[in-house]
Amino acid sequence: MAGLVAAARARELGAEVRVLEKGDRPGGSMRLSSGVIWRYRELVEFRRQCPGGDPELQRLIWERLDEAIDWLERLGAPVVARDTARELTAGRRFEPRGLTDALVGAAGEIELSAAEATPREPLVVATGGYPVRLARERGLLRRSNPCSEGEGIDLVLARGGQAVAGDEFYGRAMPGPVPEALYVPAAQLYGRLARRVNDRGEEFFPGEPSWSENDLAQAIAAQPGGRAWYELDAEALAHAEVVDRIPYAQETEALPDGGLRVRVYAGVTHTYGGVRIDTRARAVDGVWVAGVDAGGISNGGYASGLAQALVLGLLAAEDAVAS
Ligand SMILES: Cc1cc2nc3c(=O)[nH]c(=O)nc-3n(C[C@H](O)[C@H](O)[C@H](O)COP(=O)(O)OP(=O)(O)OC[C@H]3O[C@@H](n4cnc5c(N)ncnc54)[C@H](O)[C@@H]3O)c2cc1C
Question: Ligand 1 in contact with 150 (CB < 6 A)?
């Protein structure tokens, strides 16, 4: 997303832009997403939810998001809901294919299957973090676009950028490998109702998961095989979110009390580590970094990756064109 946003904004400001996309289609994980671009209603809540993230970058994203969403709408990106239907958050839900089309239309020509080892500066790097690499290295499922290996981050570090390290990621409990079209509906997002047990039979997450269950997904990643069981009693099985998502389960076992255990795997959607940037999205002279290639923003919790991509993409383009 962030690369398309940066290209669209730079062109709007009169710059000539070359867009290089490694994959065979534009849109990255944005195209696969639920399309909800959101922020916490209050900045203090963002801090409370993501205490390990950079406070200045959090403030920046939080303050600029609403006008950035208006900009997207002006480009013609289709809105399907004007709120997030969540108490803690505000934002808009876009239809992801239409959102991609609107950005592609504004970004100009996109060179597909075109990763370049030494792109010229001024350069905006926005390669979507390293979910593919992290999932491979840790033996976890990938729940992201298939291309984001961390090449953009490596490139900026090689040019003198600083790393924000860490293995934290945004993820979901998945029933097993599923096609991309099922990344959203198949997510087993009801862990709060379950007894959470690993393959050794240990209850590994005794407390209450956070609202996003991102902490639970990471706890599953730390269990043997990056997997676990959700054990549901008859009452839990009647909840609407369970009823909606159980049909996607791939491995289940009946429990003696009429309940069910469902196999879940941690799926990596995007990474939190990346390149350190300043509040103008600069990493080093001549290089800006946007989207989840920028590290250290949501650490300790979960915040909208689309919001990070949108705001930093706009900012990177505006600063690059002005300098
Ligand atoms: C199923 C799913 C649901 C989601 N739902 C939401 C949601 O509702 N709300 C939300 O905020 N977030 C959501 N997300 C997360 C969100 O999609 C990402 O955080 C966001 O897309 C990150 O933006 P980005 O621009 O950094 O990366 P991407 O959107 O992934 O774009 C990165 C692009 O870089 C390309 N690329 C990779 N390497 C190279 C290279 N070397 N050279 C050139 N190009 C390269 C990739 O192919 C890709 O097109 C969801 C993600 C998924 C998968």
Answer: no
